[in-house]
Specification:
Blueprint lengths: L1 H6 L4 H11 L19 E6 L5 H13 L3 E2 L2 E2 L6 E6 L6 H22 L7 H10 L1 E5 L3 H14 L5 E7 L5 H8 L13 H19 L2 E7 L8 H6 L12 H6 L2 E12 L2 E10 L1 E11 L2 E5 L1
Parallel strand pairs: 1-7, 1-8, 4-5, 4-6, 6-7
Antiparallel strand pairs: 2-3, 8-9, 9-10, 10-11
């Protein structure tokens, strides 16, 4: 048995077919629809505050935890479990519930219009979806790093498909302050931004490698300080923001999209723009935040 396994070779095409059969490319809703994401993708959603970064995460989360169909009702979800790391400590469970309930109600209403004989229990669907939404909150790097280290054991039975991190740079200023403190024990590694992110990237690499996950992380940047970073990356983006994250994190990211709040409105709604930096795309998408999530504009 073992000899047969050792002697058997497979081509790259066979390997990709085997891997992608278990975890196919993930097509996310707008504004992340331009680039399908494969396993081990690290997507950074960057932009000033406010620019609907958390709303994008919630919108994607609802699309993931909704069922594909149930009792004949087409919900259009992915039936995936997600884990949400709240580093900003401002997560709004009522907003998540609002989006989810409206999406469930909309699907049920459309189904009743076609088949009034079939009843669907919306409360049961809601509970099932919420069981797929795992949440943890961290107040500093001393909580975030241990949470990442023990996460591998917790995920063994959950099958998490997407790991979301709301504001990966939330503890940057605190960690920078620790690096300036005198070292009491010279033999120990000094705590600082670089050390923290080296550990974060190391632990995330273990997780995505072991569980074949996709990571979505938001990053808040200053709306005032601009540089040519985005111009170099995207080949001509009109306005970019200074990169403040350590090179360890920058090189870890495989996909990057920048979102901004626009001055014009769409009806009574504030509109936003989304532009891909990695890979660099020449198109820009506009969207608004509605009660039931995000709606793309043509």
């Amino acid at each position: 048995m073992a000899k047969t396994w050792i002697d058997t070779d497979e081509t790259a095409k066979q390997m990709l077919t085997r891997v992608l059969k278990d975890r196919p490319l993930l097509h996310l809703p707008p504004p992340l629809h331009r680039v399908p994401l494969g396993v081990n993708t690290i997507l950074e959603i960057t932009g000033p505050s406010p620019s609907a970064k958390t709303e994008i995460l919630l919108h994607v989360a609802v699309n993931c935890i909704l069922p594909k169909n149930q009792n004949g009702v087409q919900y259009g979800g992915l039936e995936h479990t997600i884990l949400f790391f709240d580093l900003d400590c401002r997560f709004d469970i009522h907003r998540l519930s609002q989006i989810l309930k409206l999406r469930i109600t909309e699907a049920g209403t459309m189904h009743k219009a076609k088949d009034s004989q079939t009843e669907c229990d919306e409360s049961d669907v809601f509970k099932e979806c919420m069981r797929r939404f795992l949440y943890t909150r961290c107040y500093d790097s001393f909580e975030f790093l241990p949470a990442l280290k023990v996460l591998g054991y917790k995920l063994m039975s959950n099958g998490v498909y997407i790991l979301m991190i709301d504001n990966i740079g939330a503890f940057q200023s605190i960690d920078r302050g620790f690096s300036s403190l005198p070292q009491q024990n010279p033999s120990r590694k000094k705590i600082g931004v670089q050390t923290v992110f080296e550990t974060v990237v190391q632990e995330l690499k273990k997780l995505v490698g072991l569980h074949s996950m996709i990571v979505l992380a938001t990053k808040t940047v200053s709306n005032q300080v601009k540089s040519s970073y985005s111009n170099r990356v995207s080949g001509g983006l009109k306005s970019g923001y200074r990169e403040f994250m350590p090179l360890t994190w920058q090189s870890f990211v495989t996909r990057r999209i920048v979102v901004r709040r626009l001055e014009r409105k769409f009806g009574d709604r504030v509109s936003y723009s989304a532009e891909w930096l990695l890979p660099a795309l020449s198109v820009s998408d506009e969207f608004v935040v509605c009660d039931s999530g995000i709606k793309g504009l043509l």
